[in-house]
Design goal:
The complex is a heterodimer of chains A (about 110) and B (about 110). The radius of gyration of chain A is 14 Å and the shape is globular. Chain A is mostly beta strands and about 110 residues long. In chain B, β4 and β5 form a beta hairpin. The relative contact order of chain B is 0.33. At the A-B interface, β5 and β10 of A face β4, β5, β9 and β10 of B.
């Protein structure tokens, strides 16, 4: 069964610093991978996704992620953090069986400090 | 604007009562989903539906029921059999293709007292 592991439930960075949120997946078949962002008491918004093709994926708000099959990783990065990036971030993998059932990681809460 | 609408945003119920959470989408998506979110546990799949009048259990279906009488609507009932119903509930929809993203509603926070 597909699964994802997010290392670090809380990450704190200074404004302007590099953001790195880690995600490793476990899948017996080539996965479709997603990063979502959630602001307090709101739904999830897609940041970016990897399906096929280019392994470096660019998303909204300056985020990007690189699919590394050899490391089974899909880490999310942003060169320079902004205060508005403070939120919870979820990595997810599509499950087999049709449709878009997702298996989510446990989330990483990003704090951005002045 | 196309999207998913969940209502109400906040819901309070007494223990032992059934409660129904509404989810409507106008994205013309075939698939719809219900997830439960608890702190530190991510999102867990409760039920999903890929076509009208058909739905399947997810990972934590016990104590919940759903219906899919219309393509646009996928209401979730939290029954009195659900032992710990207080949580944040998220509805989502998507096309059937596995490589497309799911779109989420704004969620309903259910508190059972």
């Amino acid at each position: 069964a597909q699964s994802v592991t997010q290392l670090g439930s809380h990450v704190s960075v200074s404004e302007g610093a590099l953001v790195l949120l880690r995600c490793n997946y476990s899948s017996s078949v080539p996965p479709y991978l997603f990063w979502y962002v959630q602001y307090p008491n709101q739904g999830l918004q897609l940041l970016l996704k990897y399906t096929t093709g280019a392994t470096l994926v660019k998303g909204i708000n300056g985020f990007e992620a690189e699919f590394k099959k050899s490391e089974t990783s899909f880490h999310l990065t942003k060169p320079s953090a902004h205060m508005s990036d403070a939120a919870e971030y979820f990595c997810a993998v599509t499950r087999t069986g049709g449709g878009n059932k997702l298996t989510f990681g446990t989330g990483t809460q990003l704090k951005v400090e002045l | 604007d196309g999207g998913i609408t969940q209502s109400p945003k906040y819901l309070f119920r007494k223990e032992g009562q059934n409660v129904t959470l509404s989810c409507e989408q106008n994205l013309n998506h075939d698939a719809m989903y219900w997830y439960r979110q608890d702190p530190g546990q991510g999102l867990r799949l409760i039920y999903y539906s890929q076509i009208v009048n058909d739905f399947q259990k997810g990972d934590i279906a016990e104590g919940y029921s759903v219906s899919r009488e219309k393509k646009e609507s996928f209401p979730l009932t939290v029954t009195s059999a659900q032992k710990n119903p207080t949580a944040f509930y998220l509805c989502a929809s998507s096309k059937m293709n596995m490589n497309t993203e799911a779109f989420f509603g704004q969620g309903t926070r259910l508190t059972v007292v």
